């Protein structure tokens, strides 16, 4: 009976979030620097009108940006949940443990170091080749994750592993600073604008590539649910139940690196979402069962990212606020609320 009630409650939560997602998606499309009535937007979405300006704003700017927000939200949230489970550390996340910094140093290598070495013409060409950025960012994030994993084999203290992650993040930032010192102002400005984070500009094949890649990784993450539940009881227990822990750990690292690295490549480093959303999901579900946590975390991440994007558009200026700043402003009070409600955070 108790299990049935739990299933009904979690089902209600899931379908409630599923209902909120398209509503917020529509709101995000409605908001923007140009004031357009919601009826015209709905009409344009349902059947394209002859208004070329309206069609351009909706289909070339607002819809891709809203879809990008959804992809970024579920990708960072799932990567944060996977890392928190793997390291059994409530503060683990793509940004806190240096994964985003690793992705950033990969992108900086393409933008600053390669551009400086080969010339500005090559730099401009490389920036528009998304596969180069996504490869560099993913490689950088996976490299940092493997370094953290290697250290964790010798350090049983999760706080020590966290400190190592922070040190690695600072080390990568130092490398980027050296490259910036030897780069020209145009290259530095391009990289700095990228670090602010943006959901704009992910269009056409870029959006399709990001969507397919991260959706596939999200499906793989959901398939990890059973083994992740076993991993909660420790690596010894998981191994006794038939899980090949070293191989499974590498799979988690690969999926997490691609999810976080691809988002960082296309949208810049976006913080807080990967750390905050898994805790909100646990608070709402009241369970650590990944069969429920994974889909609800993905939905929550997409919803919170859409809310952040709506806030970023509120000033109504031609240029919206940097999304990375908005997620930090929204994420900080959420973390404080979670800490107050749960004095002892457990994974």
The percent range for strand residues is: under 5%
List low-confidence stretches. Answer: 119-129
Summarize model confidence as the mean pLDDT: 83
- Determine the fraction of residues in helical runs and give it as a percent range: over 70%
What does the secondary structure layout of this molecule look like, with pairings?
Elements: H1 2-30, H2 38-46, H3 52-87, H4 99-118, H5 120-127, H6 130-152, H7 158-181, H8 185-195, H9 204-223, H10 225-231, H11 235-240, H12 245-267, H13 273-285, H14 290-313, H15 323-341
Question: What key attributes describe this structure?
Answer:
single chain, globular, 347 residues, mainly alpha
Give an account of the 3D structure.
The structure is a single chain. The protein has 347 residues and is mainly alpha-helical. The chain is 78% helix and 0% strand. It is built from 15 helices and no strands. Helix 4 (99-118) packs across helix 12 (245-267) and helix 6 runs antiparallel to helix 12 (245-267). The longest helix has 36 residues, at 52-87. The two termini are 26 Å apart.
What is shown here, in short?
Helix content is 78%, strand content 0%.
